[in-house]
Amino acid sequence: MTNADHTGVTVPEGDGSAAAAPGEHAPVSPDWTCGSCGADWPCEVKRDRLLSEYGADRAMLSVYLGACLAAAAEDLRGRGSITLQERFFGWLPPRPKKE
Ligand SMILES: [Zn+2]
User: Which portions of the sequence form the region Disordered (predicted)?
Assistant: First the structure.
């Protein structure tokens, strides 16, 4: 059988093992800092990667970030002054104009 598993959503999660691989720049809960560089997630390296990973598929990237935002909101609820929406979406470059 050579049927590929097409679920429609590709989430970069490695093999699902507990520890994030070095250089993976995966979020670490409950603080949602980067597991590789310690910056607030998504860190600059991760942002770069997400943009090249999802490319023009901004809708899918938003779905992914939205899922992360929801999980982070659970973890960070009531303990921060940071606007998570701003943190997760504020860094995105302006959407290119469609001609
Ligand atoms: Zn990082």
Answer: 1-25
CA of 51 relative to ligand 1 center, distance in Å: 14
Alpha carbon of 40 to ligand 1 centroid (Å): 8
Region label for 72, one of left (φ > 0), alpha (ψ between -120 and 50) or beta (otherwise): alpha
Q: Is residue 48 part of a domain?
A: yes
Asked if residue 12 is part of any domain, the answer here is: no
Per-residue pLDDT reduced to its tens digit, 3-49: 444 444 444 444 444 455 678 999 998 889 999 999 999 999 999 99
- 1 within some domain: no
The DSSP letter of residue 9 is -
Enter the pTM of the model: 0.60
